[in-house]
Amino acid sequence: MSKAAVKTKLCLLIFIATIMLAVPLSATVVQRLNLDDLVTRADSIVIGRVVDSRSSWTKDGKLILTYTTLAVQEGLKGTPSSTITVTTLGGQIGKTILHVSGMPSFERDETAVIFLERSGGYSTVLGLSQGKFSIRNGEVSNAIQGLRFNDAVAARSVRMPLDEFKRQIQQRLHR
Question: Which of 20, 77, 99, 175 places its Cα 20 to 30 Å from the Cα of 124?
Answer without folding.
Answer: 175
